[in-house]
Amino acid sequence: MAQEHGRVNAYGMTSYNTRELIIRDDIMAKAEELAELISSSEEVKMFKQAEEKIRNHERVQDLIKQIKKKQKEIVAFETFKNQEMVAKIEREIEELQDEIDSIPLVVEFQQTQSDINYLLQLVVSVIHDTVSEKVNVETGKDMPPSSCG
């Protein structure tokens, strides 16, 4: 078990700031187990496959390189305060981005990212809701007994 940190407040309770908070080993072990389960989920497998396809797709990689080059050009023209060229290059970047976004493989990749984000938000929500049933997370105080009225 980790050593005790924190300060005793006026109510005799130990309080912690975020940097001092020590997580119990069993909680960390369960968090790592959950992370491993998520990492081996179908959503993550599909994401990795889509990511690999994107990495090996010559047109997508070429478009990405063009966008990065144009972003550097924007920085240079902004240095010279040439807003006309900045606007022109921004339009060119937008066209390149539209082309990337129209490639079905990119749409698939973006969907897999969205699926993983949804899965993670769902897990966090379930944890939050479960803990909130026991403790009022917003105030950090125990929920009042239902018999109080």
Automatic annotation (TrEMBL):
Pfam families: Com_YlbF
SUPFAM superfamilies (UniProt xref): YheA/YmcA-like (SSF158622)
Gene3D superfamilies in the record: YheA/YmcA-like (1.20.1500.10)
Coiled coil, from the record: 50-99
Keywords linked to the UniProt accession: Coiled coil
InterPro entries per record: Bact_com_dev_regulator, Com_YlbF, YheA/YmcA-like_dom_sf
Entry protein name: Cell fate regulator YmcA, YheA/YmcA/DUF963 family (Controls sporulation, competence, biofilm development)
